[in-house]
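Q: Could you fold this chain for me?
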Amino acid sequence: MKSERAKLGMSAKEVASSIGVHENALLRWEEGTAEPLGGNLISLAKFYGVSPEYLLEQTTSPHAKVVAHK
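A: Sure. Below is the predicted structure, expressed as structure tokens.
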């Protein structure tokens, strides 16, 4: 996640403000000590223009979606 923010040249505070979360939450997500859930995950993915799966490191392709097999 931090690399996506770096690509935009934005501070954590700027990104957090843009998606409506506290800067500390964003920093915890970037550090891997917490994960964005639900609407926050979707908002962050849309903001960065990548898939939620990419942000959660479930795929290496920014626009790929993970398909669960039954």
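A (continued): The chain has a mean pLDDT of 91.
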